[in-house]
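Database export, one record per block. Field names are fixed; values are copied verbatim from the stored entry.
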Amino acid sequence: MTTANEGATAPPAKLNGKVIAISIGAALGGFLFGFDSSVINGAVDAISEEFALNDAVTGFVVASALLGCAVGAWFAGTIADKYGRIRVMVISAMLFFLSAFGSAFAFGVLDLTLWRIVGGLAIGAASVIAPAYIAEVAPSAFRGRLGSLQQMAIVLGIFAALLSDEMIATGADGAANEWWLGLDAWRWMFLMAAIPAVIYGLAALRLPESPRYLVGKGRLDEAAVVLRSFTGTSDVDTKIHDIKVTLGEDSKRSLADLKGSTLGLKPIVWTGILLSVFQQFVGINVIFYYSTTLWQSVGFDESEAFTTSTITSVTNIIVTIIAIMLVDKIGRRLLLLIGSVGMTFSLGLMAFAFSTGTLDSEGNAILSDNWALTALIGANAFVVFFGATWGPVVWVLLGEMFPNRIRATALAVAAAAQWLANWAITMTFPIFAGIGLTFAYGFYASMALLSLFFVFFRVPETKGMELEEMSSDVLVKRGKFVHPDGDVIEG
């Protein structure tokens, strides 16, 4: 039995500047992912007013992009295995661009929903391809840090969207008012997404293809160049041999490769799916999609609510930097466990704070100054714990934990599950809030608590392991990769 790191090529002693550059280029998809999914934050009330929508329809419009995300993620793996990682990035950029213009010039709720779904297709594909690509080009010793660039790009995109929304709404004296060229401010909010879409598309065209994809297609000379020049691999021939072995025979990749004995799927695939679901069921996107509306409900006016949401986003950026510094030092599992504990307590604090509130004539929660501050502290503490742990670490794990042969398809299934979970949480928040914010945040707190036990028993530690060491026949027991013969693979 060969344990991890036996016979593996030695990782480079320091990080190659070229691999940082191409990882940033791939992570630009994460920026658009964050921007496009969060830009509706500042527009949601204006859209509801423009088209006279009730809470249920408003929730569907907000969440409609997430349905596209699930579809885009589902097919991205198959397309990436057939045509390459770079082509998926270019297609995503084109869809982002079309969605920006279509949403900006929507004449009704139906076509706005359609264009949001188109944007969702792009987000879903980008959410799969960026972590897969970065994991496949990054040296194992630095893969956590480089993989975390995906989450950094996402939170920067969220921040840029919130800042853009605030500037536009301030300039127009409200998101529902006209701004430039006779267009309402909320329409300009969507239009701004076209700028990063163009940048992403141009950047993707300059990236080298993934060496794992190139080896799978028999383009060994090209793979050798990428491994040597970008990832800093010294023994290229051995690395290519290892990749060929783990890819198996050159047959068509499909979802059938994911079949296993546990409810029809391999155990490691279920681990990826549940990681994705828990990441969303703690309610993180409620903070970003509805943060402006949420803080208006506790006494902030529109301008103050925008500012509060932007501060929350900046906090997310800072803690993501902390995660990048820690993920390759203390490992993925410990960060997730810390995050689960912190999120449980902070969400519980929010639930308790809102339990002290009263309702006005329109059904909005009214908190005293002290409890409003407590709720704000709880929300930002939640963002800190999520942003330093579950936000980046889940994407790192999804990019690296699956074997070479099934990585793209398994990641696609896990990401599709994540987007469906995101859709469910986003759609149900107005309903949960109607029952009471105490109920809503109490539910998210219970999910955070469950995630603690899930990580302890089912999530492996992948720090320092080569991608070629992730075997398709492993089980996961208390955080260790375990072969059916009982031997533990140490990372």
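Remark 1: Residues 369-400 form the longest helix (32 residues).
Remark 2: The domain at 17-489 is CATH 1.20.1250.20 (Growth Hormone; Chain: A;).
End of record.
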